[in-house]
Amino acid sequence: MEHRKIMQAQRLPYQNRELVIEGPIPADVLSRLTLHPDLDAFRRPKEQHKALIEIAELAEGRIIAVRDEETIVGYVTFHYPDELERWSEGGMEDLIELGAIEVANSYRSLGLGRRMIETAFAEEQLETAIVYTTEYYWHWDLENTGLNVWDYRVMMEKLMKSVGMVWFATDDPEICSHPANCLMVRIGREVPLSSVEQFDRVRFRQRFMY
Questions:
Q1: Three-state DSSP state, 181
Q2: 44: part of which helix (H) or strand (E)?
Q3: Which residue intervals of the chain are DSSP H helices?
Q4: For all residues of the chain together, what is the average pLDDT?
Q5: How many helices (H) and strands (E) does the chain have?
Q6: For residues 74 and 4, what is the distance between their CA atoms, to the nearest angstrom?
Q7: What is the pLDDT of residue 109?
Q8: Domain membership of residue 131 as a residue range
Q9: pLDDT of residue 1
Q10: Residue 208 has pLDDT above 60, yes or no
Q11: CATH code: domain of residue 111
């Protein structure tokens, strides 16, 4: 599969300077930046910074980030499914996970999540891929946002729909374990029917459910 990576960048006025939304960012560029200390939802910032660099080094990996001068204040990751997850079972080269998305607390409400995701899909970069994301309520920052699980779910759905991702059914036990959890998917225009059918087989282990 061809992994198209076309660097995109846009600037957003912020206080007396500009934020830069850009990507996919090469690993060597990421290594020269620092991660904001509030970006600790998944790992400690230094460990997460290292993980972002490792993703950027992958052929299919891509990091879209927002930087305030030389500090990363938000990021989105794209990569193949973890080999321990069911989504890797089909061995699909055109199935890409939209994984972590995180914005530092003081930079929220600026629409940075949407801007980063839109940057990832710009210039038809992901039309050859099925891009999916798994939303689990236990990953959501309910405390700092003040939202309940349902309002947060609506917010995440709206964010993903901004790039054409839609809700897909699945019998995955983790997603089915709570009604707020969901699977959202975008099938690129150049994805062959054989890949769509393979993804359907991965989504449902119990054939009678689809």
A1: coil
A2: none
A3: 27-30, 45-56, 112-121, 142-145, 149-161, 173-176, 193-203
A4: 94
A5: 7, 9
A6: 22
A7: 87
A8: 8-209
A9: 77
A10: no
A11: 3.40.630.30
Distance separating alpha carbons of residues 138 and 149, to the nearest angstrom? 9
User: Tokens at residue 127, please?
Assistant: 């039309």
The Cα 205–Cα 81 span in angstroms is 17
pTM higher than the cut 0.85: yes
Side-chain-side CA neighbours of residue 151 (13 Å): 7
pLDDT in tens, 153-178: 999 999 999 999 999 999 999 999 99
- Cα separations in angstroms, 178 against 15, 49, 91, 99: 40, 31, 27, 19
Rounded Cα distance between 29 and 119, Å, is: 17
Yes or no: say if 66 and 76 are a contact pair by the CB < 8 Å rule. Answer: no
Predicted confidence band of residue 145 (pLDDT cuts 50, 70, 90): confident
Identify whether the C-beta of residue 10 lies closer than 8 Å to the C-beta of residue 44. Answer: no
How far is CA 130 from each of CA 31, 38, 51, 195, 197, rounded to the nearest angstrom? 29, 31, 23, 8, 11
Hunting for tokens 């620092």 — which residue is that?
34
How many domains does the chain divide into? 1
Question: Is 2 part of any domain?
Answer: no
